[in-house]
Amino acid sequence: HAILDGWSNPILLEYIHEIYLKLEDKEIIVPSIDHSYENAQKYIQNNEQVNREYWERYVSQIQERSDLSGLLSNSSKSNNLRISEYQHIKESKEEGLIIKDDLYYRLKEFSQSEGITINAILQYVWHKVLNIYGNSSQTVVGITVSGRNIPIDDIENSVGLYINTLPLVIDHNAQKTRTIIKIIKELQDNINEINNRSNINLAKLQKRGERLFDSLFVYENYP
Prior knowledge:
Helix content is 44%, strand content 8%. It is mainly alpha-helical. Strands 2-1-3 form a three-stranded mixed sheet. Helix 6 packs across helix 7 (180-196).
C-alpha cells in the first residue's frame, strides 16, 4: 500500500495495457501528466489545521473501550492478557462467511431503496457485534478509507497513495431512540466525513502509543 492500493492498481495496469497496444501499432505516445495527486496535496496542506481540530474533537469523545476479554481462552484470561495491549499474533486464523442467494439480493434491494451503502450496513452490524460482546456503550473500529472524497478534478482516475486507516466511533446510548435506518444513515454520513478529512497521521491520534481500536474493518468493492 505504500505504492499501490486496490483503486490505483487497475488504473495503472489499464494505462500500461493501452500504451502497449499503441506501441504495437507503432503509434506516437503522448504522455499525459496527472496533476490530481499534486493538487490533492496542496488542498490537504491548505486544510491541515481545520482537519486536525476536527480529529482532536472527534477522538476526545471516546470515553469507553470494548472489552473483548470474555472471548479469550481460559489460559489467556489467567495470564491477565489485555487485547488492547497485545501486539503479536502467534497463529493467525481465518473464518469465512458468505452472504448469498436471497439474503444477498434482499440486502442489495434494501440498501438501494433506503439510499444507504452495503458498506454502511455491514459497518453497523460489526459495531453491534462489538457492542454486545464487549458490553460497552461505545465502540471504536478502524476503517480504511479511499481518501478521494476531496474536491479535486479527476481524482478518481489518479494513481497515488490516498488511502488511510482511521477510527470510526459509535455511541450506542445516544442511538437508543433512533431507528436502525436513521442510525445507519448517520453512520454513512460519518464515514463520508472521515473520508473528506482522511489526511491525518493515525499515530498522532493515539496518545501515549495506545491503540484507539482493536479491530479493523476493510470494505473492498472493486473487482
